[in-house]
Write a structure and sequence with these properties.
With 305 residues, this protein is of the alpha/beta class. It has one domain. 46% of the residues lie in helices and 14% in strands. It contains 11 helices and 9 strands. It has helices at 11-14, 20-30, 34-51, 53-66, 72-93, 113-120, 136-146, 160-171, 184-192, 225-233, 266-287, and strands at residues 108-111, 126-130, 151-154, 176-179, 196-200, 210-215, 218-223, 237-241, 250-254. The strands form 2 sheets. The protein has a 7-stranded mixed sheet with strand order 1-9-8-2-5-3-4, sandwiched between helices. Strands 6-7 form a two-stranded antiparallel ribbon. 37% of the residues are buried.
Length: 305
């Protein structure tokens, strides 16, 4: 298939060079064989689960409200599974920059790439809706190697060390980073140049930054940014996830475009479309509940605040 031209990105503005600290950290962890590293991280996260009461209670509270039909034993099993999954994601992080097109099959296969190909052929770019689910760091490898590099919207981390470590890993395969805040015009320009844009849409936001939509039966304040960009640009919105499969590998799943509602009521359109994006995330998390970030205070912002 022939795609409309994709303009070059200003790499000096959006890529990240590896610092010496990042190089040392990656080198040190890669000295540990991956199998042993996974076992060590699982042991550490098992300890954290029992030692950090605050985070454990947040996860259990979130799960209890999300799955009221499940028993306490089932809730605890999902919570422990979530910690175990986070341990694997962290242990595997140090392999991400070194995965190649030739070795990617050892890590992941794909489903639904045709949806991305058809969407890009429209020439309006792609808005990719994702979540802190599955191995979201592997997604920054799988998408550029299987399809096209992304422009990833992200919030710079407070820790310069972690910011560089993750930023370098995420851009190693051709992706670029777009810091949140005041980036709307830049994103619209990139969409017009037919670039795929990666967005995480599963985090709590302040009341003035989003709308309350239903997420696991509770009102969750959710950013309207994706809906705004979709309405302004006409770009298709594709949900993209990468859950871990029973064999230990992952599957890059690209779902069909989400239907976008456009009426004369802009505020209503923002709500309706944001609700649809949240529902797609919820549906995927329900299939693999251990693979979502339950320790995040997703419902922290309240409607009455």
């Amino acid at each position: 298939m022939t795609f409309p031209a994709i303009a070059a990105v200003r790499k000096d503005e959006h890529t990240m060079e590896k610092t010496r600290t990042t190089a040392v950290i990656f080198f040190a962890f890669r000295l540990i064989p991956l199998g042993i590293r996974r076992a060590l991280f699982k042991a550490v996260f098992r300890l954290v689960y029992h030692a950090s009461a605050k985070q454990r209670l947040i996860a259990l509270h979130n799960l209890r409200n999300a799955f009221p039909e499940k028993s306490i034993d089932e809730i605890e099993a999902i919570a422990k599974g979530s910690y175990r999954h986070m341990a694997l994601v962290m242990a595997e992080l140090f392999e991400m920059p070194y995965i190649t097109r030739e070795t990617l099959h050892e890590w992941a296969d794909s489903e639904g790439l045709e949806h991305a190909e058809r969407a890009l052929a429209q020439g309006k770019g792609i808005l990719s809706v994702g979540a802190h689910f599955g191995n979201w760091e592997l997604k920054t490898v799988a998408v550029p190697l299987m399809f096209r590099p992304m422009q990833i919207i992200y919030r710079p981390l407070d820790s310069p060390v972690m910011d560089n470590l993750l930023g370098w890993s995420r851009t190693k395969h051709g992706n670029s980073l777009i810091p949140k805040g005041g980036s709307g015009k830049r994103i619209i320009s990139l969409l017009r140049q037919n670039h795929p844009i990666g967005i995480m849409s599963d985090q709590n936001v302040a009341k003035n930054e989003g709308v309350f939509v239903d997420f696991f039966g509770r009102p969750a304040c959710t950013s309207v940014g994706t809906a705004v960009l979709a309405l302004q640009s006409g770009a298709p919105v594709l949900p993209v996830f990468i859950p871990r499969m029973p064999d230990g590998r992952y599957k890059l799943i690209i779902l069909p475009p989400v239907e976008i509602t456009r009426t004369d009521d802009y505020e209503s359109d923002l709500f309706v479309n944001t609700q649809r994006f949240a529902k797609v995330v919820e549906d995927m998390v329900r299939k693999y509940p251990e693979q979502w970030f339950w320790i995040h205070q997703r419902w922290k912002t309240k409607p009455w605040q």
